[in-house]
Amino acid sequence: MLETVLVTGLVIFSISLLLCIWRALKGPTLWDRVIALDSFGLNLIGFIGILMILQSTSAYAEVVLVLGILAFVGSVALAKFLERGVVIDRDSH
Amino acid sequence: MIEILISLFVLSGSLLSLVGSLGIMRLPDVYARMHAATKSATLGVVLLILGTFTYFLSEGVFSLQLLITIVFVFLTAPVAAMIISRSAHRHGVKLWSRTKHDELMESYPEHLKPERHDES
Questions:
Q1: How close does chain A come to B110, measured CA to CA in Å?
Q2: Which UniProt key words apply to this protein (chain A) (predicted)?
Q3: Of all residues in chain A, what percent carry a pLDDT higher than 90?
Q4: Domain that holds residue A71
């Protein structure tokens, strides 16, 4: 029973990842693409989480953690860059 | 018994993520899409990793990395969403045509008001 549920979860996550890719390709503004890629990273975490249960291995735990960190850092850096053209700015108003 | 709990976590988590992605696809402007992406996708992923953690706990493995992932996602996803939407608003991305009230615009000083333009 558990395996059926897990495969269903994988299918649902695949649909969700495809929807994120569609929005990242379509736009219309750059910030839409950034949101879609951020959400893509979060959904990838969930996908790998299901894969961990399905294969019954805890080897991917570090992968999940690093993906979470990379999604956050990437989105923040892109947003700051799109706002002013720099990642770290000195005057903060 | 523990399988039912794990299935519940996995199903609710994946359905919430699907709702978030549907919101990203269907909602009209950047700020509404941000709201959909951030709220439901975060809760979905946190529930799903909780299910994974429960599974490994029932197998006798205490995985600290998964717990750290839960805390990290829960803390950073709203921060990233806030930074992205503030960046869009400062750059002047247009709101939906039926938006009634732009509260953040009133908090700018007069010489810093961003011009609204559409980047399509």
A1: 13
A2: Antiport, Cell membrane, Ion transport, Membrane, Transmembrane, Transmembrane helix, Transport
A3: 54
A4: 1-84
E strand or H helix at B83, and its extent?
Answer: helix B64-91
Position A93 in a domain: no
pTM: 0.86
Whether residue A92 is contained in a domain is answered as no
The tokens for A73 are 């850092």
Residue A89 lies in a domain: no
> Which residues 7-46 in chain A show a CB within 8 A of chain B?
8-9, 12-13, 15-17, 19-20, 22-23, 27-32, 34-36, 38-39, 42-43, 45-46
**Closest residue in A to B68 (Cα–Cα):** A65
Q: Which A residues in the span 47-66 are in contact with B, Cβ-Cβ below 8 Å?
A: 49-50, 52-53, 56, 58, 61-62, 64-65
User: What is this model's ipTM?
Assistant: 0.85
Nearest in space to B22 (alpha carbons), one of A48, A22, A68, A75:
A22
Which residue carries 């053209």 as its tokens?
A85
Total structural domains within chain A:
1
How many CB atoms are closer than 10 A to CB B105?
A: 13
